Amino acid sequence: MLTNPVVISILVMTALCLLRFNILLSILVSALVAGLIYHGGFAGVGAFFDALTATTSTLITGMKGNLETSLSYILLGALAAAIANTNLTAILINAVSKALAKTSTYFALIIASIACLSQNLIPVHIAFIPILIPPLLPLMNRLGIDRRAVACALTFGLKAPYVSLSVGFGLIFHGIIKKELANNGVEVQMSEISSVMWIGGLSMLVGLLLAVFIFYRKRRDYAHTKFESSEEQEAQLAASLEMTKKEWAVLGGAVVAFGVQIYTESMPLGALLGLLVMIVLGGIEYRKIDKIMDSGLAMMGFIAFIMLVAAGFGSVLRESGGIEQLVGFASEVVGGKIGGAILMLAIGLLVTMGIGTSFGTIPIIAAIYVPFSLSLGFSPAAIILLVGIAAALGDAGSPASDSTLGPTSGLNADGQHNHIYDTCVPTFIFFNIPLLIGGVIGAMIL
């Protein structure tokens, strides 16, 4: 097993990611390592370059598997940029803050609900956090709310919807699962994926409730923030926020994007039609279209390219022939289904912690997990759950993940929230552990 190209390339990729090497380059280097071993690239200079050429060709050909996903990310980024260019989010926040001021008990749960909308109804991803959270810090300080609970709430809202629901970013996530399972010999429908992935969402909900109502429910004091404002200033801000033609047009475009993606199960088509509606109705000024598209590309472009390269990496792993050897070896040592389930989820946790994206993890692990799961006798439903949760594991708790970087960007606006100890550690404990338990139990039952 020490010469298996899959094992070595995964170890190289994990090591590079943990050393904070660029994620995109880490995947590319790891793919080349797998190809060099498979093609015998260490036999001489000529063999070395022949192996690199063959591997690069396989990588590029395999990248086409995530073209739809990458397009979805870029168009969703443009949608998010268009929404952020209006007062729509600020109006929602102003209305919500009035309700939040009346209670501390359910503060974190309301924040989690708002975060869920950012993945489905108004797919702005983490773009809402710098707008929503900093103005609420003074209120949180007055109520003595532990920001670790809010960090868990935000991460829950950024993850649980796409893990469990085939809407918004969840449609992309479930679509990648469907495609990669098919690439490895298991044909499933989108309805089958959503019918089991709710187990992941329920597991995360358990973790959220434990964090909010048990571990972080006690008062925690913070110093006054620079975001403190007088009642007069708050009143002036509220008065300046109103729904104009521009806000209504953008809201209409968001609703169209949401409806089309549900009807057609096509996220790119929904996002594109939503953008066109915004342009026609005046939500996006014609002279600012290029600026909006550039902003969307800047927001989501890097993630889109990670998706492409991850699909190519998965293609290289499948061609290397090391998967069959790895599956045969692992089947003999894991000790049956439960051991196999734990091993797969643990490896998924490690890989996603390094890469920092659940979406980019699926093509890599599916190439190994699907044949491994079939060899252990898991049903298609169990395979869906194992691949989906193995990919989702580690997104919470990873220092490089949007699901942790986003919450920290808002909660640390005044310098009183530590990224590792106040965001990554709590979200790792309260989401990865329940996901691991739920994944093992679910896979054994399905």
UniProtKB/TrEMBL annotation:
Annotated compartments: Cell membrane
Membrane topology value: Multi-pass membrane protein
Positions of the Putative Na+/H+ antiporter N-terminal domain: 4-99
Lineage: Bacteria, Pseudomonadati, Campylobacterota, Epsilonproteobacteria, Campylobacterales
TM spans (from-to): 7-34, 73-93, 105-137, 149-176, 196-216, 269-286, 298-318, 338-356, 368-393, 428-445
Main location: membrane
Cited InterPro entries: AA_Transporter-Related (IPR052576), Na/H_Antiport_NhaC-like_C (IPR018461), Na_H_antiport_N (IPR032813)
GO cellular component, one term: plasma membrane
Keywords in alphabetical order: Cell membrane, Membrane, Transmembrane, Transmembrane helix
Domain named Na+/H+ antiporter NhaC-like C-terminal: residues: 154-439
Keyword Membrane: yes
Domain of life from the UniProt record: Bacteria
One Pfam family in the UniProt entry: Na_H_antiporter
The protein's name: Na+/H+ antiporter family protein
